[in-house]
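Customer escalation, tier 2.

The customer says the design service returned an amino acid string that "doesn't look like it belongs to this structure." They asked us to rerun it and document both sides in this ticket. The original structure tokens are below, unchanged.
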């Protein structure tokens, strides 16, 4: 893996799970990891319940916007984590691919998004310990 690992989080709309995961990794890793997120069919905006759930833990997603998944984003990433988008992510040799099964926060209120947010944080902490062992808390 590169000296500064790069991670791409992908979900269908890039409006909930992948945005929260990218925000957690950025928050926890700082500049030690390059972080991207994208969607196979991006929404118009980030899920307001996801924005609120992250605000509750001190992470601001108000400036985030869904982005389309590109081949270049996958090619530039060491680790590609999909969350419910199946085969939409192109596969390149030498990349690490993970599929995280998580509930979709789409159409749910903040009460339902909180446990998803917390599960994502736990998974991101595990990932961070793997890709930057010397930087783990």
């Amino acid at each position: 893996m590169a000296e500064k690992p790069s991670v791409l989080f992908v979900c269908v709309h890039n409006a909930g799970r992948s945005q929260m995961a990218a925000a957690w990794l950025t928050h926890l890793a700082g500049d030690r990891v390059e972080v991207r997120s994208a969607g196979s069919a991006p929404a118009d905006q980030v899920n307001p319940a996801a924005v609120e759930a992250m605000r509750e833990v001190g992470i601001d997603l108000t400036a985030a916007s869904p982005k389309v998944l590109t081949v270049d984003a996958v090619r530039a990433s060491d680790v590609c984590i999909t969350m419910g988008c199946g085969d939409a992510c192109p596969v390149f040799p030498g990349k690490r691919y993970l599929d995280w099964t998580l509930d979709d926060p789409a159409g749910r209120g903040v009460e339902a998004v909180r446990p998803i947010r917390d599960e994502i944080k736990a998974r991101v902490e595990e990932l961070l310990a793997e890709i930057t062992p010397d930087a783990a808390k």
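Tier 2 assessment: The sequence is consistent with the input. The radius of gyration is 14 Å. The chain has a mean pLDDT of 91. Sent an explanation to the customer and offered a walkthrough call.
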